[in-house]
Amino acid sequence: MIRVLLADDQPLIRSGFRALLDLEDDIEVVAEASDGKECLALVKEHLPDIALVDVQMPVVDGIEATRRIAADPALAGVHVVILTNYGMDEYVFNALRAGAAGFLVKDIVPEDFLHAVRVAARGDALLAPSITRKLINRYITEPLHTDAGTGLKELTNREREAVVLVAQGLSNDQIADRMVISSLTAKTHINRAMAKLHARDRAQLVVLAYESGLVVPRTS
């Protein structure tokens, strides 16, 4: 059973998503929150698999809520999916930096919404690396050289190569072909790199690759 928490300050939005989720045999809505502070408390209480979090909420916004969830080791199994009205924008980018697994636009069709919840529950990023890269190219004009740079020193050459290819938007199979290794080995390199860089998923791994300067954003 996939356990979901809904966090949005608009009751109509919450009720609409809940109505869809309640029809599914493998999904259970365990709690609803109307602001970020309530969201954090309920996440700690219920430990959902998925937290669907509105990016702009009162008291504590969705980005800060995501950051606090991602920073808490006790909540490592909670996958945050950001809900937004606007699609790709700076709020979404900052949510990815904070540790979100991806984002959904609120006018998504029901079938895609349900599929996205199941994808996120498996621990997969809800955002193609190529889309993440577009966000980064838009909002990072130069490497930030944050603490991610320290983690880069721990990467092997092959892990570093795999991270660069992830940031370029390649799938595991494409990375395996490029590196002339098996898909399983490619996945192993990526997972080890994620662990060393403390990235929760592939989307955040791409962000860290740019922030650390390992990959340089395009200027055009």
UniProtKB/TrEMBL annotation:
Domain HTH luxR-type stretches: 148-213
4-aspartylphosphate PTM sites in chain numbering: 54
Keywords: DNA-binding, Phosphoprotein, Transcription, Transcription regulation
Keyword Transcription: yes
Domain named Response regulatory: residues: 3-121
Full protein name: Response regulator
